[in-house]
């Protein structure tokens, strides 16, 4: 299950919030590795590091790095608290793994937001956009801000992909454009920590003051190519949570004209399963105008059965291409950029525009 290596840090390649990318020499070659200083301490050139290289050996795309498990000869100091009380939090994430992280939950007794969260029961009609892939986040945000530049947008990160929010360079690049990030479930490293999607949504609304929230997993979608074997199935449960809490669910569709896999061309089977079979609460499913005619016909045919429960909403796309091209972070999904899979990003931006047009509650 784990492929271990011991290596030596040759160079610090780059940094972003919560993460350091390294060049590490091991087994006669240099490789790329990531370290999370909050977990393992601050790496330096010359350090001996213990690595998990499984994802790198497998050749994964998003997660194709070696990961630093420890800097054994120079351990980081303990946190400032003595660890015997719950004053600094007791949410254990990545539970019962060697690098389980203990953090302060937004609704814990020691949290400064405890009183707000204890009385929070509703999203007060806040629009919430759900998306299958992390790569949709900047496109949804572009659509929101093109329509309503002053909107406060929060991101609720679920635990279907990367667990550390620090892995995402996209989040680092969007820091000045988001009201904040709430990491939920086993995910951690956000501005706020929550134990469930429900508390994450309430925190986005009542602590971060969001007008609109986006729910999506972190980078690194898991899928087996079967109907039910993908991490994005949790989107349907997110729709249900939004509905139960009195929000306005907006389901961003995963539409592609660039994916070579038949199950993801047109409307991905991920969207058809999550929204068509798992989501029990009605949601708005925005469909962008301006798709290439053959693709538009394919999308309409695939979505027709979903109209029995959900509302299919046509969204004009004027100005959205410019908004996408002005994104503060690069747009990429499965290695394809904006021009290689324009329909994917346009559909996500249309969902953002529709959410903005629903207006702040």
In short:
This is DUF3866 family protein. The chain has 361 residues and is an alpha/beta fold.
Comma- or semicolon-separated keywords:
about 350 residues, single chain, 17 strands, OB fold (Dihydrolipoamide Acetyltransferase, E2P), five-stranded mixed barrel, alpha/beta
Q: How would you sum up this structure, described in words?
A:
The protein folds into 2 domains: 4-70, EutN/Ccml (OB fold (Dihydrolipoamide Acetyltransferase, E2P), Beta Barrel), CATH 2.40.50; 114-358, Rossmann fold (3-Layer(aba) Sandwich). It has 11 helices and 17 strands. α4 packs across α11 and α7 (234-244) packs across α8. The model has no long low-confidence stretch (mean pLDDT 93). The chain is α/β, with parallel strands linked by helices and 361 residues long. The radius of gyration is 21 Å and the shape is globular. α9 links the parallel β16 (284-288) and β17 (311-315). It has a 6-stranded parallel beta sheet, sandwiched between helices. Strands 1-2-3-5-4 form a 5-stranded mixed β-barrel.
Topology of this structure?
Elements lengths: L3 E13 L2 E8 L2 E7 L1 H4 L7 E5 L1 H5 L7 E5 L20 E3 L7 E3 L10 H6 L7 E4 L6 H11 L5 E6 L10 H5 L6 E4 L8 E2 L3 H10 L5 E6 L16 H11 L3 E4 L3 E2 L9 E2 L1 H10 L5 E5 L4 H11 L7 E5 L4 H6 L16 H17 L3
Parallel strand pairs: 3-5, 8-12, 8-13, 9-10, 9-12, 10-11, 16-17
Antiparallel strand pairs: 1-2, 1-4, 2-3, 4-5, 6-7, 14-15
Helix pairs in contact: 4-11, 7-8
Helix content: 25-40%
> What's the total number of strands?
17
Q: State Rg.
A: 21 Å
Strand residues, percent: 15-25%
Largest sheet: 6 strands, parallel
The average pLDDT score comes to: 93
Q: What structural class results from the helix and strand content?
A: alpha/beta
Q: Give me the side-by-side strand order of the main sheet.
A: 11-10-9-12-8-13
């Amino acid at each position: 299950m784990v492929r271990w290596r011991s290596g030596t840090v040759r160079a610090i390649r780059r940094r972003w919030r919560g993460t350091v990318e390294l060049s590490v020499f091991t087994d006669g070659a240099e490789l790329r590795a990531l370290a999370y200083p909050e977990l393992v301490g601050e790496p330096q050139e010359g350090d001996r590091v213990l690595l998990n290289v499984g994802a790198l050996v497998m050749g994964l795309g998003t997660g194709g790095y070696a990961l630093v498990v420890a800097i054994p000869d120079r351990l980081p100091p303990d946190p400032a608290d003595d660890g015997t009380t719950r004053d600094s939090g007791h949410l254990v994430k990545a539970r019962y793994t060697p690098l389980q992280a203990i953090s302060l939950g937004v609704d814990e007794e020691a949290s400064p937001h405890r009183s707000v969260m204890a009385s929070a029961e509703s999203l007060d009609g806040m629009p919430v956009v759900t998306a299958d892939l992390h790569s949709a986040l900047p496109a949804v945000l572009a659509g929101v801000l093109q329509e309503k530049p002053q909107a406060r947008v929060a991101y609720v990160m679920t635990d279907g992909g990367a667990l550390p929010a620090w892995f995402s360079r996209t989040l680092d690049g969007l820091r000045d454009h988001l009201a904040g990030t709430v990491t939920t479930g086993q995910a951690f490293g956000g501005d706020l920590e929550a134990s469930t999607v429900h508390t994450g949504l309430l925190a986005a609304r009542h602590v971060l003051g969001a007008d609109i929230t986006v729910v999506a997993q972190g980078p690194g979608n898991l899928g087996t190519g079967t109907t039910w074997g993908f991490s994005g199935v949790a989107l349907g449960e997110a729709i249900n949570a939004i509905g139960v809490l009195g929000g306005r669910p907006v389901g961003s569709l995963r539409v592609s004209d660039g994916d070579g896999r038949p199950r993801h061309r047109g409307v991905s089977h991920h969207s058809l399963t999550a929204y068509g079979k798992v989501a029990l609460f009605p949601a708005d499913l925005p469909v962008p105008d301006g798709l290439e005619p053959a693709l538009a016909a394919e999308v309409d045919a695939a979505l027709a059965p979903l109209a029995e429960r959900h509302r299919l909403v046509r969204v004009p796309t004027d100005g959205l291409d410019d908004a996408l091209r002005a994104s503060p972070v690069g747009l990429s999904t499965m290695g394809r950029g904006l021009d290689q899979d324009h329909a994917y990003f346009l559909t996500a931006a249309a969902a953002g525009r529709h959410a903005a047009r629903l207006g702040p509650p």
